[in-house]
Design a protein that fits this description.
The protein has helices at about 10-55, 55-60, 70-80, 115, 260-270, 290-295, 335-345; strands at about 65, 70, 80-90, 95-105, 105-110, 120-125, 130-140, 145-150, 175-180, 190-200, 210-220, 230, 240-245, 255, 280, 280-285, 305-310, 325, 330, 350-360, 365-370, 375. By secondary structure, the chain is of the alpha+beta class. Among the domains are: about 75-160, Thrombin, subunit H; about 175-260, Beta Barrel (Thrombin, subunit H); about 280-375, Pdz3 Domain (Roll), CATH 2.30.42.10. The strands form five sheets. The chain has a six-stranded antiparallel beta barrel. A six-stranded antiparallel β-barrel has the order 9-10-11-14-13-12. Strands 16, 17, 18, 19, 20 and 21 form a six-stranded antiparallel sheet that branches. The protein is globular.
């Protein structure tokens, strides 16, 4: 049988041709894939362009939520309840502050700070719509920096949109809060922050050296003109009355707790004053490591008695250099604790049990002293 031999050169040509055809096919497929990718990229660019073109619309519809609460909706709910308080002082100077509407047993009144209306000869309040009316002091308490105002009777009733005041006893450090007021006369400004501390004390010139106790500390920015405005929770309920700032501080403001207002409002609105501030008749300072070392005491906390007022409630009961460490079993770490306990838990005429560390000879011993509390003297005019 005859078999024809295929030349080796021809086989080589076939092999080379296969490689060329395979390369062309691969190149064609790659070109098709590149074309498809270019199409996808073009579509993506178009979509991105559309997104950039509409970003202004997206931002305009953006709503800020805080723990599920829309801050803009909350503001709309309470803005008409906050008023501008304008005051002419005896000195002839003018001052501005804030206040909010409160429903006292059917009568609409304005709550503000005492220091806003201190030495006032003329007072007016202005609603958010710009209409203003004369106001008068209905009651005041310098020791709590509170005042309530009555407004002239011809004010239309639909202007009064009172805020709800709730207990501040459930507040905790870290709770979010909102302040609304008129800083520097900028009506209806809102700021936000948190409760940064509780049970603080602050002092003012008009209190005669007595501390304003049990004060809320907040990081919500507070500026001159905010005084007297509401400090709100996320439900739009009043938990405090903004009152003061620390000069040159950042994010440090104070508010009178709503519990103080709730405790005093009846007396302020019906008698014009509050006479429930108890009085021990002592002066002193906080204990610390160096004071303890100076005294030779083995305790570094508490409140050190430096003076006992002659004839006062503590006369013959407490002694100079006694260290108050507890009242009625509640630990007293410092003057803030002492003042806050006295303000929140006691009234004039109450008997309290004061635990002190007292030096007898060369030893310090614990002693419990009973004191009948008096009423704090009237503040200086």
């Amino acid at each position: 049988m005859y078999t024809q031999q295929i030349p080796r050169g021809f086989l080589a040509l076939l092999f080379i041709a296969g490689l060329v055809i395979g390369g062309v096919a691969s190149l064609y497929v790659s070109l098709q894939q590149i074309k498809s990718l270019e199409t996808d990229v073009s579509e993506l660019r178009s979509q991105v362009s559309k997104l950039w073109g509409s970003q202004d619309i997206l931002y305009q519809n953006f709503t800020v939520y805080h723990n599920g609460t829309s801050l803009s909706e909350l503001y709309e709910k309470v803005k008409d309840s906050v008023v501008l308080v304008s005051v002419k002082k005896r000195s002839g100077s003018f001052a501005k502050g804030s206040g909010f509407i409160y429903n006292f047993t059917g009568k609409m009144i304005i709550v503000t700070n005492y220091h806003v209306v201190h030495e006032a000869v003329n007072i007016s309040i202005t609603f958010r719509d710009g209409e203003g009316y004369r106001a008068d002091i209905l009651g005041k308490d310098p020791y709590a920096d509170l005042a309530v105002l009555s407004v002239e009777e011809n004010v239309p009733k639909d202007k009064f949109k009172p805020l709800r005041v709730v207990s501040s006893s459930t507040l905790k450090v870290g709770d979010p809060v909102i302040a609304i007021g008129n800083p520097y006369g900028l009506v209806g400004s809102m700021t936000t922050g948190v409760i940064s501390a509780l049970g603080r004390t602050i002092t003012e010139d008009y209190t005669g050296g007595f501390a304003i106790a049990n004060v809320i500390q907040t990081s919500a920015p507070i500026n001159p003109g905010n005084s007297g405005g509401p400090l709100l929770n996320l439900n739009g309920e009043v938990v405090g009355i903004t009152t003061a700032i620390v000069s040159d501080s950042q994010g440090l403001g104070f508010a009178i707790p709503s519990n103080t207002l709730l405790k005093e409002i009846y007396a302020l609105a019906t008698t014009g004053e509050y006479r429930g501030h108890s009085y021990m008749g002592i002066k002193g300072e906080d204990m610390d490591y160096y004071v303890a070392k100076e005294l030779g005491a083995g305790i570094t906390y508490g409140w050190l008695v430096r003076e006992v007022v002659n004839g006062g409630p503590s006369h013959g009961k407490l002694q100079v250099n006694d260290i108050i460490v507890a009242i009625n079993g509640t630990r007293i770490r410092n003057g803030d604790d002492l003042a806050s306990y006295m303000e929140e838990k006691t009234l004039p005429g109450n008997t309290i049990k004061v635990t002190v560390m007292r030096k007898t000879g060369n030893t310090w011993k614990e002693k419990i002293v009973e004191i009948i509390l008096g009423e704090r003297p009237s503040p200086p005019i």
